[in-house]
Amino acid sequence: MTAGPSLHGDHHVHSAFSDDAVSTPAENLAAARAAGLDTIRMVDHVRESTTYVPDFLAVVRGLPQVEGLRVLTGVEAKILDADGTIDAPPEVLAALGRPDGADRVLLADHQFPGPDGPWSPRVVVEHLATGALTREGAVETLVSATVRAVRRAGRAQLAHPLSLLPKIGLTEDDVPDDLLDELAAVAVATGTPVEVNEKWRCPGPRVRARWAAAGVALVASTDAHVADDVGRYAWLREAVREDA
Length: 244
Description:
The chain is an alpha/beta fold. It is built from eight helices and nine strands. Strands 1-2-3-4-7 form a five-stranded parallel beta sheet, covered by helices on one side. Strands 5-6 form a two-stranded antiparallel sheet. A hairpin with a 2-residue loop joins strand 5 (112-114) and strand 6 (117-119). The chain is globular, with a radius of gyration of 17 Å.
């Protein structure tokens, strides 16, 4: 039996501090309570130039306590390049895990971590078409950059892992076992939770099973951008049932 994520938690929920979400932290808290969750991680997008994080954390920490509901915090940042550079303010990364900081940084493959900075999926597709980049090279670069970012962060969570692959014409089947094992090893060594993400429907059954067997802490997430979606699982509920 595969050790799947608990559906009583939602480890990736956005508020209006993100420019593409609409609900307030208070509304997300109420939704988590209504859904019967025991854990919610409130997260919002950052870039290196972002300045709102102290205000966001103050609002979340000022929310009323709900018995039986643990409220965690985070910031979501993309992996910028092949070296694993993280697109977040240095002071935010330095404060991770401290009383004045967010609990974790959620590392996201929103763009491809190229050698000279982030590449859009379109650029990657063009490089693959011309032969400037091989499928194997693209996968290895993506995984290696993620591993480096996890090590660099120290306190990370992998957000929707491998979700970039379909955008560049690849699938999880293109990721060999040894690279999956490399990601699993760094996640276990650093205590990094890894999402099973409802919105992006990833990772798939092969990856979930391999990572669970390696001892990776898999956590459920909706990646909700509106309170109505908090803790609501359809694809993930079926995935957990199939994994059992």
